[in-house]
């Protein structure tokens, strides 16, 4: 496809137009004018200086007065009214310098607030742009034509190519493999047989297939999701500025005090002085500075927040709802376990499957090939590869025909039990067969993110009291993930509408955050007070309606954002409170006639300096997680990388344990046991010892104390004990065969070591390796 021609625009005029629209231009111009007036004053041209300052005051007054009148017409009441009255009073009593100083402060607050509002703003336009625009329609003469989506009618026969988004709701005419996660939240690929209904918005993850349109584009699922998101965004109330919430009490107090000072003394200048020192600069300056500092910090952590109001809301949140697929989980399949027929070899089954799948574009194929290469298995070049949509891939590997996909025919007893086991564990089984029948199956899972459990704990510590997982996935799979990460409640099989309704219900009781990554999450994100999208995982509609987007594929950055938002809001509230307290004292002095307007304006400037310096504290601090030293990060990367080798030994350990359990008299049993013990001694124990010696002491600082790793150290002791126990059994077998009376205890040691090591690796990846703050750094999946 060719690219559209782009209009050439001179760079300098474009920059000039951007500068003209910039929010900082009024502030810069007013500041220059005030300094010019000061230069004239010191040059002896006092009248000219007063004229310049008066002009600055009027220039600031006109837009401020218009904004205030418009707000009052809409029955909105904010801090701007004090600034307007102070500017008017300064003109009336001819305190032009005081008015000019107030004008600069007002302009500074406006510029900071506008800057915060313009950061990372998004709307529904990108959501609409991502919707399908056209479709491939079959013609009566057997050809294919590309037509605009609005020309697709009910009953039309369409062709959906590999990787295409299904354009309208319809019925598949042949077997299809679909990725429905963006619409339903279902993490596993779904096979649809001929005659099954499919929804628009899902992605074709297999070969092309025919589709008969059941609805037109306007009535299809994707269009409905777009409408839901748009309606929810329209219903969403505008954010209330933190400064305006304080104004509800401060403004009436100021007006009453100014009126009393004028009434009791008969001097209008006292009222003006009260208004001048009451100008809410701590609110107009310190609060935006703290909020903008927070926005800048979360952006550096990989979180783009739409505006200051969204950051304030994030800092007040009490309820968090999280999608599962792609949010708490990785969102892409991984080979979790290889199960083989009695007497089979796990490594060989995975090697055969990956060899055949090398030429397939299927996402499951990529997962199998990646897993085999990570284990160092030598893949063969397949021949005569064919792919049957909805059934799988077949080809010749090393002279034998290998099929990968669904199981054909009546499964043997062991295969039937395996299918039931996969269903119970929430995994999907990819069968590997040859001409003689099934060789084994590869169980695929969508692994929980290594940082998910730690992130949930940090979110609770940050003040979120209720955490709920909402997902379109199956209840069994959803409950398992919920137990791992530690949420309070789980709602499974949620449609987009049900997710949005649930968020709406939660939002009625507390400030609510919703986190998701798929098209199905967009309505719920728009309903929440703060919608957060996992933008790095290819989020479609979710990023377009979200108030914040995680631009790196790490869930722990959400905890960073919440902690920074709470800290920035706390600093903003503190700055406003201290500034207003000092201003009240100055107002009382001004009401007593001891503080003229000009002196009051400069005193207010001093107060501003104090609160601004305090607000700048929001540029640092607040994070509970400590950044790791470079040496510690190197150690984490090193030992995380070694976990792949340990898992390879674990797979051999499990194979050997199964061999001992099923065929203890097999002559190959004892050599296999000796080999796995050798690898445990030569590879696993040195890894654990090095962690104990180097990694754990390095983590004592970031984790708070050496006690934080004590339970992991205890696991090391147990691992060593079980390896030695296996070695003791080997020493007691001098005749080359296992004694029957030794088998139960040996199996207890083998399976016990397998369980302890797997749990130990998972805990290290959750508790330690997820500490690495490097962008894109992830521990190996389980």
UniProtKB/TrEMBL annotation:
<keyword id="KW-0067">ATP-binding</keyword>
<feature type="transmembrane region" description="Helical">
    <location>
        <begin position="24"/>
        <end position="44"/>
    </location>
</feature>
<dbReference type="InterPro" id="IPR051014">
    <property type="entry name" value="Cation_Transport_ATPase_IB"/>
</dbReference>
<dbReference type="InterPro" id="IPR023299">
    <property type="entry name" value="ATPase_P-typ_cyto_dom_N"/>
</dbReference>
<dbReference type="InterPro" id="IPR023298">
    <property type="entry name" value="ATPase_P-typ_TM_dom_sf"/>
</dbReference>
<dbReference type="InterPro" id="IPR018303">
    <property type="entry name" value="ATPase_P-typ_P_site"/>
</dbReference>
<comment type="similarity">
    <text>Belongs to the cation transport ATPase (P-type) (TC 3.A.3) family. Type IB subfamily.</text>
</comment>
<dbReference type="Pfam" id="PF01814">
    <property type="entry name" value="Hemerythrin"/>
</dbReference>
<dbReference type="GO" id="GO:0005524">
    <property type="term" value="F:ATP binding"/>
</dbReference>
<dbReference type="InterPro" id="IPR027256">
    <property type="entry name" value="P-typ_ATPase_IB"/>
</dbReference>
<dbReference type="Pfam" id="PF00122">
    <property type="entry name" value="E1-E2_ATPase"/>
</dbReference>
<keyword id="KW-0547">Nucleotide-binding</keyword>
<keyword id="KW-1133">Transmembrane helix</keyword>
<dbReference type="InterPro" id="IPR012312">
    <property type="entry name" value="Hemerythrin-like"/>
</dbReference>
<protein>
    <submittedName>
        <fullName>ATPase, P-type (Transporting), HAD superfamily, subfamily IC/heavy metal translocating P-type ATPase</fullName>
    </submittedName>
</protein>
<dbReference type="GO" id="GO:0046872">
    <property type="term" value="F:metal ion binding"/>
</dbReference>
<keyword id="KW-1003">Cell membrane</keyword>
<dbReference type="InterPro" id="IPR001757">
    <property type="entry name" value="P_typ_ATPase"/>
</dbReference>
<keyword id="KW-1278">Translocase</keyword>
<dbReference type="GO" id="GO:0019829">
    <property type="term" value="F:ATPase-coupled monoatomic cation transmembrane transporter activity"/>
</dbReference>
<feature type="domain" description="Hemerythrin-like">
    <location>
        <begin position="637"/>
        <end position="770"/>
    </location>
</feature>
<dbReference type="Pfam" id="PF00702">
    <property type="entry name" value="Hydrolase"/>
</dbReference>
<feature type="domain" description="P-type ATPase A">
    <location>
        <begin position="131"/>
        <end position="228"/>
    </location>
</feature>
<dbReference type="GO" id="GO:0015086">
    <property type="term" value="F:cadmium ion transmembrane transporter activity"/>
</dbReference>
<feature type="transmembrane region" description="Helical">
    <location>
        <begin position="51"/>
        <end position="69"/>
    </location>
</feature>
<keyword id="KW-0472">Membrane</keyword>
<dbReference type="InterPro" id="IPR023214">
    <property type="entry name" value="HAD_sf"/>
</dbReference>
<keyword id="KW-0812">Transmembrane</keyword>
<feature type="transmembrane region" description="Helical">
    <location>
        <begin position="571"/>
        <end position="592"/>
    </location>
</feature>
<dbReference type="GO" id="GO:0005886">
    <property type="term" value="C:plasma membrane"/>
</dbReference>
<feature type="transmembrane region" description="Helical">
    <location>
        <begin position="81"/>
        <end position="109"/>
    </location>
</feature>
<keyword id="KW-0479">Metal-binding</keyword>
<dbReference type="InterPro" id="IPR036412">
    <property type="entry name" value="HAD-like_sf"/>
</dbReference>
<dbReference type="InterPro" id="IPR008250">
    <property type="entry name" value="ATPase_P-typ_transduc_dom_A_sf"/>
</dbReference>
<feature type="transmembrane region" description="Helical">
    <location>
        <begin position="271"/>
        <end position="292"/>
    </location>
</feature>
<feature type="transmembrane region" description="Helical">
    <location>
        <begin position="246"/>
        <end position="265"/>
    </location>
</feature>
<dbReference type="InterPro" id="IPR044492">
    <property type="entry name" value="P_typ_ATPase_HD_dom"/>
</dbReference>
<dbReference type="GO" id="GO:0016887">
    <property type="term" value="F:ATP hydrolysis activity"/>
</dbReference>
<dbReference type="InterPro" id="IPR059000">
    <property type="entry name" value="ATPase_P-type_domA"/>
</dbReference>
